[in-house]
Amino acid sequence: MALTTFQAELEAFAAAAQAAFIAAADADALEAARVEYLGAKSGRLKDVQKQLGGVPKEDKPAAGKAFNDAKTVVEAAFNEAKERLGSGAQATSREPFDRTLPGKRAPLGHLHPITQTIDELKDLMGRLGFTVAVGPEIEDEWHNFEALNIPAAHPARDPLENFYLSTAKVSTGKPGAAKSDAAKSDSGAPLLLRSQTSTVQIRVMENTKPPVRIISLGRVYRPDTADATHYPMFHQIEGLLIDRHVTMADLKSVLRLFASSFLGGDVHIRFRPSFFPFTEPSVEVDMSWHDDKGNLRWIEMGGAGMVDPNVLAAVGYDPEEVTGFAFGLGVERVCARRHNVTDIREFYRNDVRFLHQF
Ligand code: PHE
User: Fold this and answer.
1) Which terminal CB of the chain, N or C, has fewer other CB atoms within 10 Å?
2) What are 59-108's pLDDT values in tens digits?
3) 75: CB partners within 8 A, 6+ apart
4) Measured from the CB, is residue 324 less than 6 Å from ligand 1?
5) Any idea what the CATH number is for the domain that residue 306 is in?
């Protein structure tokens, strides 16, 4: 007898025996079922065991193990039935359990759409040679402003435009710098929740010689009133490329690839002149889409530009030697555009009916 035939017999035996034990409505019925299936003299278990002898020699170990497993399962079913009938008076007979029915799938969670987007963007930019850099969400003014060419009197530093922390004794997370940072904090240097991921540009350049080719993705905080396109906490993807002879054309090529890879081949990008203290020239980056009626529309995804020579000098680079571009885009916005979400607040309402569509 082939191993598979033996296994099929075994299965059939186990299923029938279990069903019989479950269906037994009283102790007598259970005893009858026990004799039929597990009886020492002529029970069906014995019959199956006899067939074990006919299995080819090389399959014996597998067949033996299957036999023992089935026996354990059937005996457990018998003991369970015995307990059921022993404890309660005459337990009512239950529906026989059909072990061939598919099981109920346990509900599993999945990654939040923003996390999925971040993973995908890392992958996409990774293929363009950008490695991922991280920086702290609690920042000092040097990294969030000063080194980015945003001097003390600049309106962007207004306390009403930022989340300053009242506690000063927080390490800024710079490895090996805990002591001096703490000293700085003790002296009362203000800390804030970073308002942009451009802080990471500075942190990377301070510790790396050019060329640099990084992206950084993470949370940023601004005291904005929440509406369809704003939220007081959101995510940015920051890109920075520093090398010899980097031009605005490189910036546009990378962003065009970014847009067409993430949003679709028919998506165009557009630069509008703008101003950021840390880039010169600076642009706002728009990406195209078609509305319900097929009209071409543009949505602002973030800012970009050529890194300002003052920034390069602030981190000790020679602006005569190297140039670079930087960009910062809103992750919620690209994610919303990709999935046709019209209100980014949806991402943070935590309504599973919304989240489970991704
Ligand atoms: N940091 C800018 C912002 O938050 C975006 C930006 C990044 C602009 C890099 C230029 C270069 O709006």
Assistant:
1) N
2) 999 999 999 999 999 999 999 998 888 755 444 566 788 889 998 888 88
3) 38
4) no
5) 3.30.930.10
